[in-house]
Amino acid sequence: MKQEKLKHASYDEILNFDFNQPLMTVKATCEKFSLPVKTFKTWQYRDELKHPIIIKVKGSRRIVVQPQLFAEWFVKNKCGSAPTVGENRIIYSKQINAMTEGRAR
């Protein structure tokens, strides 16, 4: 059986996507963007995602997301360019140090 190539969405397609609801739950938003809920919650905890992207429903613990605003924030802040060598060194410094020590032995 021949494997079909997956078509990747461009940034313009993400920004111009027509959402069928003005507000979505965190879980539904994560499913739509193929993101782990834990990653979304981490961004929320770090105060990267704030009002007006995230709205807390009064009298409830429920948090809803404006998907169009989230898409704009996601493309602007989390997509775009690959990390530089310096950024990768910071991120993976433990692994790099361990490899260096292993080679020195």
Structure report:
- The structure is a single chain.
- This protein has 105 residues and is mainly alpha-helical.
- It has a single domain (11-104), classed as Multidrug-efflux Transporter Regulator, Chain: A, Domain 2.
- The protein is 50% helix and 8% strand.
- It is built from six helices and three strands, in the order H-E-H-H-E-E-H-H-H.
- The protein has helices at 11-15, 26-33, 37-45, 67-77, 85-91, 93-104, and strands at residues 24-25, 54-56, 63-65.
- The chain has a three-stranded antiparallel β-sheet with strand order 1-3-2.
- The model has no long low-confidence stretch (mean pLDDT 84).
Summarize the topology.
Layout (H helix, E strand, L loop, with lengths): L10 H5 L8 E2 H8 L3 H9 L8 E3 L6 E3 L1 H11 L7 H7 L1 H12 L1
**Looking at CATH, which topology would you report?**
Multidrug-efflux Transporter Regulator, Chain: A, Domain 2
- Beta content comes to 5-15%
The largest sheet, given as strand count, sense and whether it forms a barrel, is: 3 strands, antiparallel
Number of helices in the DSSP assignment? 6
What order do the helices and strands follow?
Answer: HEHHEEHHH
Number of strands: 3
Oligomer: single chain
Q: Give the strand order of the largest sheet, numbering strands 1, 2, ... along the chain.
A: 1-3-2
Secondary-structure class? mainly alpha
Number of domains: 1
What gap, in angstroms, lies between the N and C termini?
48 Å
Principal-axes shape call: elongated
CATH C-level label: Mainly Alpha
Q: Provide the residue-averaged pLDDT.
A: 84
> Which spans of ≥5 residues are poorly predicted at pLDDT below 50?
none
Helix content: 40-55%
Radius of gyration: 19 Å
